[in-house]
Amino acid sequence: MAHDKKDIPKSYEPGQIESKWYQFWMERGYFTPKIDNSKKPFVVIMPPPNVTGELHLGTAFTAIIEDTMVRWHRMKGEPTLWLPGSDHAGIAGQNVVEQLLAKEGLTRHDLGREKFLQRMWEWMNKYRGVIGEQHKKLGASCDWTRERFTMDPGPARAVRTTFVNLYNKGLIYRGERIINWCPRCATALSDLEVDHKEMQSHLYYVRYRLEEGKDQYITVATTRPETILGDTAVAVNPGDKRYTKLLGKKVILPAVGRVIPIIADEAVDPSFGTGAVKITPAHDPVDFEVAQRQNLPSVKILNLDATMNENAGPYKSQDRFACRKALLADLEKDGLLVKIEPHVHAVGHCQRCRTIVEPLVSKQWFVKIAPLAKPAIEAVVDGRIKIVPERFTKVYLNWMENIRDWCISRQLWWGHRIPVWYCKDCGELTVAIEDPSACGTCRSKNIVQDPDVLDTWFSSGLWPHSTLGWPDKTEDFKYFYPTAVMETGYDILFFWVARMIMMGLENTGTVPFRTVYLHGLIRDEKGDKMSKSRGNVVDPVKTIDKYGTDALRFALSTGNSPGNDMKLSPQKLEGSRNFVNKLWNAARFVITNLDSEELKIKSNALRTEDRWILSRLNHLITEVTELNEEFQFGEALRRIYDFLWTEYCDWYIEIAKIRLRTKDGKDSPLPVLVHVLETSLRLLHPFMPFITEELWQSLREHQPQGKPDSIMIAPYPVADTGAFDAEAEQEMESVFEIVRSVRNARVESNVDPGRFIKAFIVAGESRRALETHAEAITNLARVRPLTIVSSEQEVKLKRDQAKILVLKGVEVILPLEGMVDVDAERSRLLKEIEATQAEVSRIERLLSEDSFISKAPPAVVDKERLKLAERKDRLSRLNERLAQLG
Ligand SMILES: [Zn+2]
Ligand SMILES: [Zn+2]
């Protein structure tokens, strides 16, 4: 079946084309894999974006990398599942809606729990839809029929099942522990939710009077003087001789007058401050542990809104910082404030609202983490899970080996409510998957559920198995679990990846994924982090509207490597759009030239340039396949780009144009043009799905037989090593070097670009080969007449009236009478001699190194030897030319 010459629009309009193809793929159900037990599936679970607003660039970046990965595997014929979802985002989600309420002058307490949760759901449902639409714009080929939300009934039951199982195994407990408290958010925070920032602060030296003597004191240093009110001891290091005689004595606490002991504890650093420190068990994690060891009481002095409570005596009801000021004034008045020193130290801030957090003792739910961490460490050590890039393995292991129990209760309303009910009659707990109607111990109906919710990472930690149906043994769970790759930003390695490994192993006995692929952050062109306050945020949706999705995908993928941050600039986006246009124009040229002729490649009728481009194409396929397998998608894309831009467009198409103009019907370049284009489009499809589908469909229209309905289900190219052709590559390299050098020489001598100039090529042994490219060289370098000779004697010219280009094995002589500046020629040759000499020295040095000769593959060593011979030959000819100039 053949068509007449075809029309294709002059320029690429991404908007319409992109939505058209996404619709087409959706309708055909290509994103939904078929369970086929004879094949191993490829599964990626999408990191659920937080439903806290519109899609941001980091999420788009994640989606682009994952889409590339899954499209590639799908084209390789694997049943491929990419499961999308979103996260209720716990504290972050609640904050967004609380801020909206604040604009109406309301707090969540004004609404009450039930009404507030209603507002939360309205918000969530709206933005889940928005984020879904935005993923579609990105071309994300995820299976929307399996979309999940962390609060859906399935994942919710997984959360409760996990809680109950861990509780029954004694791995979840409720206890008084020091937690990080955000007074603004009014909730406990995990260690990871606290940002520690270096702050200019003060160290206050305060005297405590000894109970026995009127003028005897011990001086302690503190950064938080208001916590004096909660002290239950003063501690020194047992080895500190200065204080030996004071051990066991008592001091009177300033301001409140409580009597507390002086004790010895190993935890005290004798070099800090005076070597004597105050112990506040209720408000400091280190002091809390000291108190446990030493059996000290604990005195809470703060209310949960960070005002002082009744234990603060005269400072009751004051804000913590007002209290600090008032107390310091009183200490000064009483002569107890010795001195104040400037002091820089790390202060914990709430990651969500930036308020300074307060460590305080509180009754919370914890996961006993060591028994869960152990198998999670082993899974990475023994290689069941591989982390890419490898350097993060050490970071992971180091963190896991020092992990503390995980505080999982949050004093929020939005999230998975803790499945624990307290009996008001017998005081016992009932922990259950289904809401109980009565106390499990005494059957009383007088029970009330714990008001708190679970840390949002508790539910996202179950994500790879909860989304596939666990705790039920569903078909999906049996076939798709464990998943293949977990792709996410390195910034949530601990928050999320570590927890998924622990929970996955605990719940299913199997690792949740085989590979963890960590990508970096996107920064602006100067390398700064993108943030609203800097005003350098790039909105992915606006960028798509301006440049098209494929250009954005290209800009975010090319040159990017695992674990490294990348820069995005408007120039990069423009460059990406240029590539899209270049590809469009190249394909347009090919497609408009198609007519009824046979497009089968006749291997016995191939010209050298045909064999060259086919060889290059198949080398490219080999490289791209290897790079994709190593998760080097950015480098793979860069190679495809180089091939298409330079080898295919700039050389092959340009030569093909000449052949089509002078067509004799015998050896049309069209079969090769089409073959290389069609193959490259498939190679490029995972990276740039839309333009490749559009162009591929245009080619398919011309020759539909044997082709599937869409490029996205067409096979990924496999290299034909039989097409490798070193001879053709070498010959074409020589042609390109000639053309490039003549073009440079023309620019140097200011030759009008349109003008043809006379040229001689002294080709030696390559004469016959180069003669077959005379037409191409004439046209591409604009040289006419072109004379190709074997030896220099055949060229009769005054040497100082010609420009002589010394190239690999050949020389080009351009008789530019009247345009050659002898001095400039001399300095040009000297420069070339210098550069060539430097290269000769470099290669000689390399070849003299034993380590290189013994370690490098023989082919690499041979290549260097050949290069050396060639450079030496060129060097001697350059010197000859210089001598001729006189
Ligand atoms: Zn906060
Ligand atoms: Zn009871």
Describe the structure.
With 886 residues, the protein is α/β, with parallel strands linked by helices. The chain contains 27 helices and 29 strands. β28 (803-806) and β29 form a beta hairpin. α15 packs across α16 and α17 runs antiparallel to α20. The longest helix is centred in the last third of the chain and has 29 residues, at 633-661. The chain binds zinc ion (2 copies). One zinc ion binds next to loops. The site of one zinc ion has 8 residues, from loops.
Please outline the helices and strands.
Blueprint: H1 14-27, E1 42-45, H2 57-75, E2 80-83, E3 85-86, H3 90-103, H4 108-111, H5 113-137, E4 148-149, H6 153-168, E5 172-182, E6 187-189, E7 194-210, E8 217-222, E9 233-236, E10 250-252, E11 259-264, E12 276-279, H7 285-294, H8 320-333, E13 337-350, E14 358-367, H9 370-381, E15 386-388, H10 392-401, E16 406-407, E17 409-410, E18 420-423, E19 429-431, E20 447-449, E21 453-454, H11 456-460, H12 463-466, H13 475-480, E22 483-489, H14 493-508, E23 513-519, E24 522-523, H15 540-547, H16 549-557, E25 566-567, H17 570-593, H18 608-629, H19 633-661, H20 670-684, H21 689-702, H22 726-748, E26 757-762, H23 767-771, H24 774-781, E27 783-789, E28 803-806, E29 811-814, H25 822-848, H26 850-855, H27 858-885
Parallel strand pairs: 1-2, 3-4, 9-11, 15-23, 22-23, 24-25, 26-27
Antiparallel strand pairs: 5-6, 5-14, 7-8, 7-10, 7-13, 9-12, 10-11, 14-16, 17-21, 18-19, 18-20, 26-29, 28-29
Helix pairs in contact: 1-21, 9-10, 9-14, 15-16, 16-17, 17-19, 17-20, 17-21, 18-19, 18-20, 18-22, 19-20, 20-21, 25-27
This protein binds zinc ion (2 copies).
